[in-house]
Amino acid sequence: MLSHLCGFSCEREAVAVHTLRRAVAPLRSAQATGLSLSAFVAAGDGSWKRASLLRAIGVSCSAALLSACASFSQDGGLGAVGAAARSEMSHDAVVLRTPEEASDNSARVAHLLSGSLTPAKAVEIALRSNRGLQAAYNRLGVAEAIKIRESLPPNPRVSLGGIAGSLSAEIEAAVAADILALATLPARAEIAADRFEAAQLEAAEATLRVAAEARRSYYRAVAARAQVRIIERIALSADVAAKLARQLDETGAMNRLDEARDQLVKEEIAAKLTTARKSEIAERERLVRALGLLEDNLSQALPAALPALPARPLAMPSVERVAVEQRLDLQAARKELSALAKSLGLSSSTRFLDAFQLSALGKITREDVGSEKVQFNDAGAGATIEIPIFDLGETRVREAEQRWLEAANLLAERMVNVRSQAREAYQSYRAAHDIAMRHQRSIAPLHELISAESLKRYNAMIVDVFVLLEDARRRAQASIAAIEAKRDFWLADVELRVAIRGGGFPPAEGKAVKASVADNERDQP
């Protein structure tokens, strides 16, 4: 049983269990014969008393041996996180523990920023520089520390006391061990192991969340940059039209109404350009935050256009099943539900007994009898048991039961939401691909054709220059719509990844479940 908890050798377990049984065997014999504890201690001879003290010390030593088998992992529990990181970049998760690691990481980030920024580079920079992700890895380290702590036997308590008088002196010593905590050690260790695995999955999902946010911010920033360039060209053509309108107005070839309309178009485009530039700055700063950079040095790194669309969208007829199998938040919720189920079983098993301690007692008495000094050595045993008179443990069991039911219902709700989110994300992904391809294959070529025909009519002096400029503005607006459609497709691609594997923003109920789990953990013996 204990080897299942700590993983130490069977020989150590046998020694520890044998020592514990020998220490408590006399007490069991006393209870079987109907003797009280005090009468049993008084009836025992000195040899047994000394042996009992030695056996209790042996129990403490065995507990120390058990504690030596629990140790921290070398990777800090990042094995499960590494799989999530490798799905987003070419190597494991990056944890910054030393100044040397931080320096090497900064050099790698500077190298990535030296060239044109791609989605893959943006993700790697975010996973290397985002301090919120490092904090998530620190929380994983806290979870591992809790797991190790719950896997350790309780420390024995030693108390010493002495009384000295004119004719005698007494020294008392007691060694107490929490037997209930030792008996529930395997169950508590299994609960802590399940919660540690849940924490690993949560850290992996935090990695995916940072990667998804980096991709979203990247696509938005590049699209905003491209839109500004197109609106700048529209503004330039509007300036040319306004100047030409003033010249024609001076010669009397254009009335004031047409001139006012051209001036209005120019001012509206100027306002749109200002808005687009503000949006470009906001999206770039959002990307800076997502990547975890200290300053905005992305002006030269961002490309001028979004990546090309794939020729065909992904075909995923069983997207719901894949999402239910792969979503990390569902896996973490299942682990948490398992831990709560085991916690419920532990609360049910210990509802009538919340405290049980065994103590080995020793007493040394020195007295002056005439001209001689006489020393008496006494040893005994004690026990501390909490009597369930007012609290029969029903409240703890009911609380654990309701928390388990709460987690079970939340898991069922989340599974329904995951299936729905997967269907919605896939349909949005397919629709976004169709819209973007329609802009690319149909709408943009038609605007090009209209502009070419308008240019022919202008060369033939059938239409004036204002018709040509108006066609150019419409073509630019269609280009902006095409950029937005391509941006929406890539954002839909990110959301599809999130719906299948996880990495979305955690729901509000997750915080309540974690808080209740923490409270329940503190209440366990």
Task: Please explain how this structure is put together.
This protein is an alpha+beta fold and 525 residues long. It is 71% helix and 9% strand. It has helices at residues 2-6, 10-33, 37-43, 46-68, 79-88, 99-114, 119-129, 131-150, 179-183, 185-251, 256-291, 319-326, 328-349, 394-459, 465-501, 508-523, and strands at 157-164, 168-178, 356-369, 372-385. A 4-stranded antiparallel β-sheet has the order 1-2-3-4. The radius of gyration is 37 Å and the shape is elongated.
Topology pattern, helix = H, strand = E: HHHHHHHHEEHHHHHEEHHH
Tell the overall outline: elongated
Order of the strands making up the biggest sheet: 1-2-3-4
Integer count of domains: 1
Helix content: over 70%
| Broad structural category | alpha+beta
Give the SSE map.
Blueprint: H1 2-6, H2 10-33, H3 37-43, H4 46-68, H5 79-88, H6 99-114, H7 119-129, H8 131-150, E1 157-164, E2 168-178, H9 179-183, H10 185-251, H11 256-291, H12 319-326, H13 328-349, E3 356-369, E4 372-385, H14 394-459, H15 465-501, H16 508-523
Antiparallel strand pairs: 1-2, 2-3, 3-4
Helix pairs in contact: 2-4, 5-10, 6-7, 7-10, 8-10, 10-11, 10-13, 10-15, 12-14, 13-14, 14-15, 14-16
List keywords for this structure.
525 residues, alpha+beta, 16 helices, disordered N terminus
Summarize the entry for a quick read.
The chain is α+β, with helices and mostly antiparallel strands. It is 71% helix and 9% strand.
